[in-house]
Amino acid sequence: MSPKIFAKSLDLTFSTNDGPVHALKDVNLDINEGDFVSFIGPSGCGKTTFLRVLADLEKPTGGKVQINGVSPTDARKSRAYGYVFQAPGLYPWRTIGKNIKLPLEIIGLSKQEQNDRVERVLRLVDLQDFENKFPWQLSGGMQQRASIARALAFDADILLMDEPFGALDEIVRDHLNEQLLDLWRTTSKTICFVTHSIPEAVYLSTKIVVMSPRPGRIIDVIESTLPNERPLDIRESSEFIAIAQRVREGLRSGHSYE
Questions:
Q1: pLDDT digit string, tens, across residues 84-136
Q2: Buried b / exposed e across 4-27, counting CB within 10 Å, b at 16+?
Q3: What is the mean pLDDT of the chain?
Q4: Which residues pair with 191 in a beta bridge?
Q5: Range of 146's domain?
Q6: Are residues 109 and 215 in the same domain?
Q7: Fewest C-beta in 10 Å: which of 19, 32, 81, 100?
Q8: Residues 149 and 163 both lie in one domain
Q9: Distance of CA 246 to CAs 33, 133, 208, 220, 222, Å?
């Protein structure tokens, strides 16, 4: 079976007034359908840049990348993915339901289809009672769930998530991690998830991609041996701790600047 996402010898160099900035170097990665893949590494290592390449927001300067067997540009045009940014990005003058509807309005779906999709995705993120609330009436965690619902409204097979829980406190983050795992099991979507948190990466993922400082290279790809059903207390298990230690060792080794 062909991978859902495929990168081969992927390079990206930005041209700046101060000279070239090498963001990604020789990135090789296969992501299969239904994988939950976390990308972890130091700030500036290219985690977000790689997601932006997948989303056709950045153009690689070398190598090859495909999504569903086509280029990122064609994948974008076919609405193959939803994108969740670090901040919810909700318009304060629109209700939660209308924020979710906005991209559906832009692509020209009928009002009935818009309503059906909004109802379905609000149930998925447990916000069905908040459709007519405004963003400022919701907590930060609820706003981020609304942002996830908006990405899900495209009904795409792939969800790209750029550190969506980084600004939230630990208790809220734990709760949203649990909800995101439930969502992944319910929808069977392929998820690419950027994080700086080792426990979050290990808890959520079927595969963990450890990246080096710039230029971003893949130091290690760790296939998780944890079961799909993961209560929070699994983080105390020896298996979890062993995976976290391997991630930590990869991050340390990647900081060699020789």
A1: 988 899 999 999 999 999 999 998 999 999 999 999 999 989 999 999 999 99
A2: bbbbeebbbeeeeeeeeeebbbeb
A3: 92
A4: 36, 159
A5: 92-155
A6: no
A7: 19
A8: no
A9: 25, 44, 10, 9, 8
pTM value is 0.91
Contact 159/137 with Cβ under 8 angstroms?
A: no
- Residue 135 contacts by C-beta under 8 Å, 6 or more apart in sequence? 88, 90, 91, 92, 96, 99, 143, 146
Same domain, 24 and 119: no
Q: Using an 8 Å Cβ cutoff, are 180 and 225 in contact?
A: no
Same domain, 175 and 123: no
CB neighbour class for 92 (10 Å; exposed up to 12, middle 13-18, buried from 19): exposed
Residue 167 confidence (pLDDT) = 77
Alpha carbon distance 105, 28 (integer Å): 37
Q: How far is CA 45 from the centre of its chain?
A: 16
Amino acid, res. 15: S
| Residue 4 · residue 190 · CB < 8 Å | yes
Looking up tokens 């991209």 gives 103
- 95 DSSP 8-state letter: -
Helix 111-124 and helix 140-152, axial crossing angle in degrees, nearest 10: 130
Same domain for 73 and 125, yes or no, is no
Give the list of residues 6+ apart from residue 187 with CB closer than 8 angstroms, or none: 124, 152
